[in-house]
Specification:
This protein is α/β, with parallel strands linked by helices. The chain has helices at 3-33, 36-62, 69-84, 87-93, 108-132, 140-159, 161-164, 185-203, 205-215, 217-222, 227-253, 263-276, 281-301, 309-313, 319-334, 345-356, 414-421, 444-450, 467-478, 490-496, 512-525, 542-559, 570-576, 594-598, 601-607, and strands spanning 171-172, 255-256, 375-385, 388-399, 403-407, 429-434, 437-438, 452-454, 530-534, 562-566, 579-584, 587-592. The strands form 3 sheets. It has a 6-stranded mixed β-sheet, sandwiched between helices. Strands 4-3-6-7 form a 4-stranded antiparallel β-sheet, covered by helices on one side. A hairpin with a 2-residue loop joins strand 6 and strand 7 (437-438). Helix 1 packs antiparallel against helix 2 (36-62), helix 3 (69-84) packs across helix 11 (227-253) and helix 21 (512-525) packs parallel to helix 22 (542-559).
Amino acid sequence: MPRRVVDRLVLPLAGSLTTYLVLVGGGTVYAAIGNSASDGLVTQMLINAVVVLGMQIYIGNTGVLSFGHIGFGAIAGYAFAICAISPERKAAQIPNAPFGLAEVDLTPLQSSLVAALIAVVVAFVIGLGLARSGARSGAVAATVITLALLFVVHEVARNWIDLTRGGKAGLSFSPLSGVTLQGRGWIYLALLLALVAARLFKETRYGRLAQAAREDDLAARSMGVHPALQQMIALLLSVFVVSIGATLRVFELGSINPRLFFFKYTLLTLTMLIVGGRNSVVGALVGVVIITTGSELTRYLAGPSVDLPLLGWVLRSGLTDVFLGASMLGFMIFRPNGVLGDWEPDHWIARRSDRKSTEKQPELPPVDDSRPDGFLRVTDVVVDFGGFRALDGVSLTASSNEVVGLIGPNGAGKTTLLNTITSLVTPSAGSIRLDQDVLDGLPSHLIARAGIVRTFQNLRLFPALSVQENIEVARLAAAGHTGGRWQPDVELLVRASGLTELRHRRASELDYGNARRLELARAAAAAPRYLLLDEPTSGMGDLESEQMIHRIREVAGLVQAGVLVVDHDLNFITGICDRVYVLDQGKVIAVGTPDEVSQNLVVQAAYLGGPIGPSR
């Protein structure tokens, strides 16, 4: 069986099943040795686990903190109740329900699916708004939008009396004939499916690209990732899972009112997710267990059977709420990644088995200095920042068969030119072409898919991902968009970059030199036609700069890409470049071979502060 299938399917499924058996088994034992209250507690814990897993799919993979998932749960809960409650019961509770809903009579299973579908449709509309707001990890706008949804749904539920019966009584199933949820069979099934869905989504292409954008949105776009697509898929799947959990909660309780899915339940489920570790599926379940245990303990301490003077000082009547708020606040300040961070049991197994693997490593092919004919052409580009002109009519041409350097004093516009080519900066005038394709106005992820991939002056890796995962993500992002260009194997790039021994280490743990090599390998994984390198030797000594020359030539030859490189190290530029452009105050002041440029008196005046005399 291919190793990729084992790592991305077999082991996650095995880990999910093991986690499921531990959680369900532990809950069953606790319910068996306890009383009826213990049995109800386990039931609620398992339902909460389904809801929290649904939230983890979106929040954990995208990094967008959502307060609105319980609002989606409220929509699903009311839709379920309206469809599943018998017409006779609805005639007494909501006789004037619009759209003929008082006559609808579906089975609980049918009602759950309809309710989840309705919530997913609403989520799609909200997802469009999130995409328009530029939702990304840490974005305030996205959090505010989801919080607004929660309040809007709550107010509609309170005031649309004909449909929801308002905020006092709410909707309820008949207390007779056992029409509410009996047993935990459906809960067990929903939990298993939610756990498998959450764990496998994390390993899918969409999940892994969402995680890359979570770590660094700008770097992900520059690799060809379109975060809005990944976020939408994560949102729809997560809302579906949350909706199933919400319908189970309503069915188990036998009623629904606006308070059931509002801020208190939002605080509870978010705290569970944050405490356990929002980036980990297993962590989400650990958080459910921890917070359920803590909530029950504080509820007991706040009861009449415990008499401690200190409890009066800590708001005895609201002790559980104090516990939830303190848990969320404490973990977000002191351990923001939660108890488990992004740890999954199958990741640990995969890494241990990889160390023991004797599988033969692929041999590095010889460097091929030939390239398919092509060109990258910048024509009369102007960039203005307010009243400051950063680029003034810059033109540049780089063929696919050469390494072109871009040098100049600080503030000359070098990085601005790379930002303009990769669409991070919009020019005021001018055009950019890749062969015959006009790139003007394309977003940065489409520039990358066209074949222009860059590194950054300030390192922009995906810090929580491993070295290997950083490279794999770039390869995944480019898959299907390479236009027939060959994509090197991840193993080849790891070896070509000298990172074999560090492949399972997080990018955030690398020293500066290895981080630079990883950034180069990640860019090459996207099968670029041109590599744009922004100061790849910044902060390096002479020996490291010389080694970087060989790394760049080797990696560029491996993917047959042209290179446009910005750097201040003249020895590096001289050693690697075929031609050099010199910028000063936003204008090109010289073009030529490294020798020609170094002897140019205008360049000497601009770059070195004055003529250095005739060369010898």
